[in-house]
Amino acid sequence: MKSTELRKKDIAGLQTEVKELQRAHFGLRMQKATQQITNTATLRTARRDIARAKTILVEKQSADKSAT
């Protein structure tokens, strides 16, 4: 997911997005453990998507706190 798409979401939307990405990453890890996954690069992209979403979430939360 691109960062521009994530920046358009509000804090609640980002939190749900992080949870969905973590759930998807867990599924990929289970597929890897059972040797069902063929493209292991998807694990890397999933981890980076989670990190990207968390970073933007923290930025928005800190901006919200400083605005108050």
Strands, helices and their partners?
Elements lengths: L2 H5 L3 H23 L7 H27 L1
Helix pairs in contact: 2-3
**CATH architecture level-2 label:** Orthogonal Bundle
Q: How much helix is in the residues? A: over 70%
Strand content: under 5%
* SSE order, one letter for each helix or strand: HHH
Spatial separation of the terminal alpha carbons: 30 Å
Tell me the name of the CATH class. Answer: Mainly Alpha
Q: Determine the structural class based on helices, strands and strand pairing.
A: mainly alpha
Gyration radius over CA: 14 Å
Number of helices: 3
What's this, in brief?
The chain is mainly α and 68 residues long. 81% of the residues lie in helices and 0% in strands.
Structure description:
This protein has a single domain, classed as Helix Hairpins (Orthogonal Bundle), CATH 1.10.287. The model has no long low-confidence stretch (mean pLDDT 93). The chain contains 3 helices and no strands. Helix 2 runs antiparallel to helix 3. The chain is elongated and about 50 Å long. The protein starts with a helix and ends with a helix. It is mainly alpha-helical and 68 residues long.
